[in-house]
Amino acid sequence: MTESRLLFITLSNIGDLVLTTPILVALHTAYPRHLIDIVADARSSSLLAGCPFRGDIFHRDKKDGIPGLLKLVRILRQRHYDAIIDLRTDFLPWMLHADRRTARWRRGAHGPHAIDQHFAIAKRIIKTPLPLPNTIVWLDSQDEAFAAAAFVPFRNARCLALATGANWPGKIWPIAYFEELIELSKKEFDVIAILGGPRDRSDTAQLAARSALPILNFTGDTNLTQAAAILDYATVFVGNDSGLGHIAAARGVRTLTLFGPGRPERYRPWGARAEILEAPSRNLSLLRAEEVFRKLKQILETQTVAIGYNSLAGELASARALDSHFTTD
């Protein structure tokens, strides 16, 4: 018997992909017996590998150009989909075999956040509940074991997680200010965990060398899901507008994202535990460490400390509880 399948075409950047996961959860809730194939980017698709209701993951890379796109189309045309939701292009669903399709050009009116837009696209296939689902990143036992081993010396410690990098210089808070923040925060935390990519190593090495607190420096040494598992041990996350902030929010960690240039109303991490701080004149060099520390103190004082993350079973149970709000056309 042929399995019923849906196709979900997500976005490429890490943070953008995380912001599409509420639609993926909603799609599963509306079609619980379907496998969901996913078109994603190799840079970020590992964040979906542990999704328990996914089918196959296919990669689309802009650098492959038209030949790469046509190769992908040939592969996807070997299957018939009951429905396709495309959050990335305006045309791909109409090149494939499907009963129902929706893409960006078919979206209706929507709210200011990217997730609002995604649901405006998806509503032709699913009906959205209120409140909207949380973002989610799935882990496996190996990711959890990696993080547990790293935190053996600091089990139950108060951990401040920092991400000092971003995808371009204008979005990066000066490393000297991160150093000041650690000094200001030394009575609030027991250990600092630093995350980032290989190009952040020189800055974080400087930070680690001067820190008043013990440092766990994971910069350039984790994959995305290992980084997510590390973030489960954070009391609070502070970082630039980058994918790691979205991952932290998706793991249920309290987050403080520092915005300079950009559109926080559209791209801020999603969820009640995600806070932002906007730099004066959108210039991060004008955002002083003292101001970030004040905001950090407010977060610590107004929310209950919780290390870790709700289990996947709990997340899926919450998603299924929304089932009565979803119908198919």
What does this structure look like?
- With 329 residues, the chain is an alpha/beta fold.
- It folds into two domains: 5-133, Rossmann fold (3-Layer(aba) Sandwich), CATH 3.40.50.2000; 141-302, Rossmann fold.
- The protein has helices spanning 14-18, 21-30, 65-76, 114-122, 141-150, 175-184, 201-210, 224-231, 243-250, 264-267, 289-302, 312-321; strands spanning 5-9, 35-40, 54-59, 80-86, 97-102, 159-163, 191-195, 215-217, 236-240, 254-259, 274-278.
- It has a six-stranded parallel sheet, sandwiched between helices.
- β9 (236-240), α9 (243-250) and β10 (254-259) form a beta-alpha-beta unit.
- The radius of gyration is 20 Å and the shape is elongated.
- The two termini are 25 Å apart.
CATH class of the largest domain: Alpha Beta
Order of helices and strands: EHHEEHEEHHEHEHEHEHEHEHH
Poorly predicted parts: 304-329
Terminal CA distance reads 25 Å
What are the SSEs and their pairings?
Elements lengths: L4 E5 L4 H5 L2 H10 L4 E6 L13 E6 L5 H12 L3 E7 L10 E6 L11 H9 L18 H10 L8 E5 L11 H10 L6 E5 L5 H10 L4 E3 L6 H8 L4 E5 L2 H8 L3 E6 L4 H4 L6 E5 L10 H14 L9 H10 L8
Parallel strand pairs: 1-2, 1-4, 2-3, 4-5, 6-7, 6-9, 7-8, 9-10, 10-11
In short:
The protein is α/β, with parallel strands linked by helices and 329 residues long. It contains twelve helices and eleven strands.
Keyword list:
12 helices, disordered C terminus, 329 residues, Rossmann fold, 11 strands, 6-stranded parallel sheet, single chain, 5-stranded parallel sheet
